[in-house]
Amino acid sequence: MPQRCQFRVSVTKDDLVFSSAHFITYAGHRCEGLHGHNYRVRVTIDGALDPADRLVFDFLELKRIMRGLCREIDHLVLLPAGSARIAVVEDGDTVRVAVDGTPRYLFPRRDCALLPVPNTTVEMLAELLAGRLRTALEALGVGGLTAIEMEIEENFGQSATYRMEL
Ligand SMILES: [Zn+2]
Question: 0.70 cut: is pTM over it?
Fold first, then answer.
């Protein structure tokens, strides 16, 4: 009987980082002030070996995609476009942000990343980047992968991991 083999490749490099500002809301009326993190990314891909090159997926290509995804949100204020409590409104060259109906920030539009998440927690960032990686892999026609795992660390020893079965 043929064996079903799974392999796993994992990348975490010094350049898979993004330094961004954010604030999150908590249940009740708690809301953080604006602050920043040097986020680090680790990505893991599960899949079958490609019989031709004996790879799950090319590390170089994976790093290239992940560097691009990090660059998209690096040095920006991460704002949740899907929050029930944080209203994010684009107004010409500026972005107005209100929390629970009270105006709080005005940012230059170019300094913001409006993300389709309900809260910019590290969990939501991990899910978002996993989805964006999946889209990039599909665009490349990559097959044979069974799972993507995205770990985002916002502080040393403090991270969240999102696993997406494919
Ligand atoms: Zn934070």
Answer: yes
Phi, psi (deg, nearest 5) at residue 39:
-75, 140
pLDDT tens profile 71-129: 999 999 999 999 999 999 999 999 999 999 999 999 999 999 999 999 999 999 999 99
Marked catalytic residue, from 32, 75, 90, 138? 75
**Residue holding tokens 């708690």?**
30
Is 154 an annotated catalytic residue? yes
Tokens coding 49:
């070996």
What is the whole-number distance in angstroms between the Cα of residue 14 and the centre of ligand 1? 20
Going from the Cα of 144 to the center of ligand 1, the distance in angstroms, rounded, reads 36
Q: How many residues does the chain have?
A: 166
Q: Catalytic residue at 35?
A: no
